[in-house]
Amino acid sequence: MTVPEDTTAPAAEGPGGIRLGLRANLAQFTLLVAVNALVGGTLGQERTVLPLLAEGVFGLSAYTAALTYIVAFGATKAVTNFFAGTLSDRFGRKPVLVAGWLVALPVPALLIWAPSWGWVIAANVLLGVHQGLSWSTTVVMKIDLVGPERRGLAMGFNEAAGYAAVAATAMATGLIAARHGLRPEPFLLGAAYTALGLGLSVLAVRETREHARAEAARHPAPANPEHHGELTTGEVALITSVRDKALSAASQAGMVNNLNDALAWGIFPLLYAAHGLPVGRIGVLAALYPAVWGVGQMLTGWWSDRVGRKHLITAGMLLQAVAIGLVAAGTSFPVWAAAQVLLGAGTALVYPTLLAAVGDVAHPAWRARAVGVYRLWRDGGFAVGALLSGVLADLYGLTTAIWAVAALTAASGLVVAVRMYETRPCPRP
User: Fold this and answer.
1) 3-state DSSP helix/strand/coil percent for the chain, to nearest 5?
2) Domain Major facilitator superfamily (MFS) profile spans what residues (predicted)?
């Protein structure tokens, strides 16, 4: 992994000789990037295949019924995110990460041998718990390690690794399914990812909670007294969801962003199939959006450290709205491919920048819980998006559902423009 030149002062040393900064913790940071790529791969095993399984194997013709697995995944992941932050503060980051991988072990087998749709839903409940525990913890651990100066860059690498793996696995499973069928071969990748992720987390990942404590010991007191020191989890939830303008704006934007992802995951493949695209080309489209999203975050996270967070988030939400509208208007592979590139670029502007903004505002003493609350809202968007798009598609058709989400995304970007304040007060030149 290539690290941009660091022109800041040397990494600060905290109590017990703990050093903060990307260069000082490069080995562990790189390992956590790899672990999060494996977390993303376990999600990517479903992106192309499950929507087609719902319709072609299990005979679910109603869109709302076919998207129940996304509702189960999103609701479970959202709730697990909330508890992941609290658990990692109480017991440490590494135990939560390992627990997440243990929960993931049965998922590929359930998807391979599911005799009914209920088994698929059960697998996605476990997948949601896994993603909530493991992805949330890698986010918190990277924030712990790098300190305040490289937070956007750290989130860019974390989310890039995860979503590049989602994209690569979505494309790979599409190609495998085109050659061998929808089951079992595509899900064997997920089994391999899970075994490797668990092994690395147990044997090589080190605890990072003391890094957060070292940062807290030298953290300046914020202007707003309610943002300092020890808060109850309820107080953290209220500040993140409502009271703080930046945190609440980030929370709603995160929810709408993942609402879009639920649409792309569950509805877009059905739209492409309805227009006669073969499975292999659907897999390419399913991979293109998270691929651009994943790779782009390595630039946008770093960029937000220089120019600030707010304007990148606003621009990203509006660009997503344009891209979703283009999917609704399109009828051919080239148009849809262009739309996926735009959607990936817009999401890349938003995704790591929102996490960095939460890290900017939240005090290290309760930052893990604030990240958990933010991710509760953000990943609740999976469930909301699946229900909303499924109901609208059943009532009015796929295209109307997609246009409705495009309008909602544009409105979310305007909320950020009006409500959020800049959380990076001294952007670097």
Assistant:
1) 80, 0, 20
2) 20-424
**Could you give the CA distance from residue 425 to residue 303 in angstroms, rounded to a whole number?**
14
Please list the residues that pair with 13 across neighbouring strands: 19
Q: What are phi and psi of 181, to 5 degrees?
A: 105, 170
Return the CATH number of 19-215+232-419, one of 3.40.50.1400, 3.40.50.300, 1.20.1250.20, 1.10.340.30: 1.20.1250.20
pLDDT tens, 7-55? 344 445 555 567 878 788 889 999 999 999 999 999 888 877 887 788 7
Lowest-confidence segment of 82-86, 319-323, 408-412 by average pLDDT: 82-86
Residue 164's pLDDT is 84
Tell me which long-range contacts 2-10 makes (C-beta under 8 A, separation of at least 24): 4/153, 4/302, 6/149, 6/150, 8/149
Q: Which of 292, 180, 212, 189 is nearest to 20 (CA)?
A: 212
In this prediction the pTM is 0.75
DSSP bridge pairs for 19: 13
Helix (H, G, I), strand (E, B) or coil at 96: helix
